[in-house]
Write a structure and sequence with these properties.
single chain; alpha/beta; Rossmann fold; Dihydrodipicolinate Reductase, domain 2; 9-stranded mixed sheet; 3-stranded parallel sheet; 10 helices; globular
Length: 320
């Protein structure tokens, strides 16, 4: 992921890439050959020699707090890949440190920047769906050999619980999950979770590292029909409920029920979500405004993900 961050920054005409750091010398050689940038096997040396104004931190989750805290203390604005940290306490310390030092802290919840998801958010805010009943997220695919320090929930669930918060503007009240461990030696690799939001909204997410093909979709069901986002293809569809009248259900809904209407595939101008994310990070620094995904957003996503892990272990509903 760090290579992709570097690639995108290098494509920004008004951004100067001053250096990259990685423990792997062979990987750094690839970076030098491709981007003609100074490289370091020590991030401390990078800061000492280059003094960057802003950094992306894409190290393993277990190292997030240590590296991000160092960058903040050196005066840099920080984008840390999700999850914000390995524990709630680490995330809270990072947020407090950024506030104390008056530095910007953003968490890399990239799915928010998918143009189809952005379009869906706008349509929900405009009332195109009416009352939201349910959100379902599916994120499945093969096991990534690069992930060793966390399970599938902490690695992938932050994406989907953050999207649920993003689309509803609310935090859930409680969660329940079933998890299973089939491949990963130390952590879970399959999850099915339920979340209960205020206002009668239910959330569900299916996540695993066991599916031999990538599946990325979000479904939002409401009064007027169903929105579906294909995260991979950046497509947005709407399936109309022809029995929905105005902004509310018909008072005769128990008689009329739901019926199939037209399907609309909205035109979406496709763009790379990572590029949109990093542009938003840089623009927020330059303009002195709040980050589009704050440290607190990242902390809430981590809190919910860890609650799902706890529920999967205890087989109990967890109040959040």
């Amino acid at each position: 992921m760090g290579y992709n961050h570097l690639r995108v920054y290098s494509e920004m005409g008004d951004v100067e890439v001053v250096g990259a750091s990685d423990l792997n010398r062979e990987r750094l050689q690839l970076v030098e050959d491709r981007f003609s940038v100074n490289t370091y096997t020590s991030y401390e040396d990078l800061f000492e020699k280059e003094n960057p104004e802003a950094v992306s931190i894409t190290v393993p989750t277990s190292e997030h707090e240590k590296v991000a805290a160092y960058a903040l203390e050196k005066g840099a604005h920080v984008l840390v890949e999700k999850p914000i940290a390995a524990t709630i306490e680490e995330g809270e310390r990072l947020i407090a440190l950024a506030n104390k030092l008056d530095r910007q802290l953003m968490v890399g919840h990239i799915i928010r920047f998918n143009p189809a998801m952005q379009s869906l958010k706008t349509r929900l805010e405009n009332g195109d769906l009416g009352k939201i009943f349910q959100i379902f997220c599916r994120r499945a695919g093969p096991f990534p050999a690069r992930i060793r320090d966390v399970g599938v929930v902490v690695d992938l669930a932050p994406h989907d619980v953050d999207i649920m918060r993003f689309l509803t503007g609310m935090n859930p009240m409680r969660v329940y999950a079933e998890t299973e461990q089939q491949i990963h030696t130390d952590h879970e690799d399959l999850l099915f979770g339920l979340l209960r939001f205020p206002g009668g909204i239910t959330g569900a997410l299916e996540i695993n590292w066991l599916t031999p093909t990538k599946m990325r979709e979000t479904l939002v069901l409401g009064e007027k029909g169903l929105f579906r986002v294909d995260d991979l293809m950046q497509d947005l569809f709407f399936y109309e409920n022809t029995q929905a009248v105005g902004e509310l259900w018909s008072p005769f809904r128990t008689i009329r029920g739901v019926s199939e209407g037209s399907m609309t595939r909205f035109p979406i101008k496709r763009k790379e979500p990572l590029k949109a994310e990093l542009l938003a990070f840089i623009d927020a620094i330059r303009e002195g405004r709040e980050m589009p995904v704050t440290g607190q957003d990242g902390l809430e996503a981590l809190r919910l993900s860890l609650a799902l892990v706890e529920s999967g272990k205890t087989h109990q509903v967890v109040e959040v």
